[in-house]
Amino acid sequence: MIKQLWNSISSLALRDQSTKFRFASLMDSVQHSSNKSRLARTFAKVLHIRAATADKFQKTKIWEKVKRDKPIDDDDDDFKKEEDEKLRERAAMDAFVAKLFATISSVKAAYAQLQYAQFPYDGEGIQSADQIVVSELKNLSELKQCFLKKHLDDSSPETTQLVAEVQEQKNLLKTYEITRKKLNSYTKLKDSEIMFLKEKLEESRRENKVIEKRLSSSGSLSSSLHENLDFHSLTPTNFVSALKQTMKSIRNLVRFLISEMESANWDLDEAADSIQPDVVYWDTTHKCYAFESFICREMFDGFNLPEFRITSDYQSMPRSEKRQRFFDKFMELKSLKAREYLTWKPTSMFAEFCRSKYLKLVHPKMEFSLFGNLNQRNLVGARKFPETAFFDLFADVAKRVWLLHCLAFSFGPEEVGIFQVAKSSRFSEVYMESVNEEALLSPESSSVVAFTVVPGFRVGKTVIQCQVYLI
């Protein structure tokens, strides 16, 4: 019975390896003899050998597959080696480029330091920066040779690249620091210039106050001239006072004309050049002197002739009577506005003077360009006087010039003369006054007259300087 039970269990064990545990359990419950443990060990050993044989068979199959795939694995290793070599070469090139840029930034920083040390002069700083420049240029030369000879091998390209990038950033910071210092120095210089200009401005303001006081005194003198002037007590001071009032009126007219020209989109450079050609101005604002010279030239033309005319009814008069007649004309006009006098005496010599000077001074094209029509010119030509701001300014200039002329002839025709200075004449402090004083102070100036702005006068033995523009 035991034998039959063994055969049944053995057949089951051979079908399934896992039944070895159940077999041992049954053996413990059925047989209680000494053969029971020996049979169990024998059966377990058989099962173990079978399992080992199956595992060995499986390993053999895997090994054969590996052997068949071995040529493909060799190609992969070669490909990987080639890729690794390319990566190493690329890393070496990146490290080389990083070193190149770091060296260039070092040259730039050293050159910036060299420039900074030159002003203000720093001998040690210049020498140190020069040595750094030379050293970095040598490094650049060595890098060039390495590149040409393809000696770019680097044992640690990543470290080299990081160090080079750090060095480049340091050089950039150094360059920015030098730039900051230069800007600070420039700012201090500009601050000094601003302080100097402020002091100069304050000085100019003080001088202007002094001039204003003088003008005020001249104004009071002019008032006394208008109110208490006596024919027998005329002096050159009276003439100088009237001349200042005349020039003030002329400059008001110049400012108005320039404003109108700008509004009409005139080319002021071309307009100034047409009046005074081939003049290089010290400042763009000095072009106003060209327009002032034009008005003075036209308005004072004929000043040395009685009533600005070649023929005159005064030629046959005694000298004292001529002087008195001109003085009376002066006194008649001095306290009236130009328009009031023109309305009062539209056929007077002064009215004729205004008409002729306007037609000569204001060109038709100029009037049409500035005002869009020729209405003012047509009225003046018809011996009528337009009521416009421009004509009022012109009439005031005409009145001042006419008064100055009458006052001059009140001294006597032989006592007063007018003069101008020819172009390219040498500057003389006796007969000339420069309207651009910077030309006298500059070593580049030749102190040569470009043109006369305001004519000069001689009153008896007194010379009133003409005003000139120097180049």
General description of the model:
- It is a single chain.
- By secondary structure, this protein is mainly alpha-helical.
- Helix 2 runs antiparallel to helix 3 (35-118).
- The strands form two sheets. The chain has a three-stranded antiparallel β-sheet with strand order 1-4-5.
- The chain is 71% helix and 5% strand.
Instruction: State the helical fraction.
Output: over 70%
Which strands sit side by side, in order, in the main sheet?
Answer: 1-4-5
Separate helix tally: 15
Which regions contain 5 or more consecutive residues with pLDDT less than 50? 1-10, 12-36, 49-57, 59-64, 218-226
Main sheet, how many strands, which sense, barrel? 3 strands, antiparallel
Quick overview:
Helices cover about 70% and strands about 5% of the residues. By secondary structure, it is mainly alpha-helical.
